[in-house]
Amino acid sequence: MSARDEAFADLLKIMDRLRDPGGCPWDREQTYATLRNYLLEECYEVVEALDAGDRTGLREELGDLLFQIVFLSRLAKEEGAFTAEDVARGIAEKMVRRHPHVFGEERADTSEEVLRNWEEIKRKEKGTQAAVPASVLAGIPRGLPALLKAQRLGTKAARVGFDWHRDVDVLDKIDEEVLELRRAAEAGRPEDVREEFGDLLFSLVMLARRLEVDAEEALEGANRKFQARFHEVERRLAAAGIPIQDAGLETLDRVWAEVKGT
């Protein structure tokens, strides 16, 4: 057994020990439902380590995430559904099937060709398992953040030719959505405002996709920038002995402009 195989086998043994009779009371109490939020938390911590460029932290967080996968696989094993080995074997077989240009005789010289082939193979696989052919948009998790989901939807649709011809056409669509949102807001129609606001956001994400901008990452960058600037506004007001709640909009705007200009 290789060192790599031993490491994975050791992790499975630890999981078995925790769940077996006489193991850890807390681990033995866990269910799919109780592990769900831990899985989400570990995913976000992996992303946080990635964003911070923290390779030591990334190694640790990937381990925590892997443990959640092993934990869920152990629960499935107890039900007789599948094992962690089945999970590893399944993804290995899928990667071979989805990369015929590497493991077979197909050719794909660009990333775009790889992605088109991937989607076609995926549709065929899903189609053989369903009574009706799989949708082009299939495979996008319902729980994805809305911006990321919009970007994935647009990408999948674009791969079969459903897309604007030019970036400027998307900008025109954004102008149209802004006008419709303005009309709904001026008319005081809350449901229409909500719908038009969603349409505007979706159009903005489509532009981001075409410009090769990650919409989720871009918004998070704007969030961080706002936080940093607002914290500096708070710091300057505190240094001047002005409680922020008493500063007033004029003072807040002035200090904000000063911070933005530095």
Report on the structure:
It is built from twelve helices and no strands. With 262 residues, it is mostly helical. Helix 3 (32-52) runs antiparallel to helix 4 (55-79), helix 8 crosses helix 10 and helix 9 (167-187) packs antiparallel against helix 10 (190-210). The protein folds into four domains: 3-98, Orthogonal Bundle (Helix Hairpins), CATH 1.10.287.1080; 103-134, no CATH class; 142-213, Helix Hairpins (Orthogonal Bundle); 216-261. The protein has helices at 3-19, 25-29, 32-52, 55-79, 84-98, 100-103, 111-128, 146-158, 167-187, 190-210, 215-239, 248-261. 7% of the residues are buried. 76% of the residues lie in helices and 0% in strands.
Short description:
The protein is mostly helical and 262 residues long. It has helices at residues 3-19, 25-29, 32-52, 55-79, 84-98, 100-103, 111-128, 146-158, 167-187, 190-210, 215-239, 248-261. The chain contains 12 helices and no strands.
What is the CATH T-level topology of the largest domain?
A: Helix Hairpins
Number of helices: 12
Q: What structural category do the secondary elements indicate?
A: mainly alpha
Q: What can be said about the biggest beta sheet? A: none
**How large, in whole angstroms, is the Cα Rg?**
25 Å
The assigned CATH architecture of the largest domain is Orthogonal Bundle
Question: What is the ordering of alpha helices and beta strands?
Answer: HHHHHHHHHHHH
In round numbers, the mean pLDDT is 92
Report the portion of residues in β strands.
under 5%
CATH superfamily of the largest domain: MazG-like
The total number of structural domains is 4
Share of helical residues? over 70%
Tertiary shape:
extended
**Low-pLDDT windows of residues:** none
**Overall CATH class of the largest domain:** Mainly Alpha
Strand tally is: 0
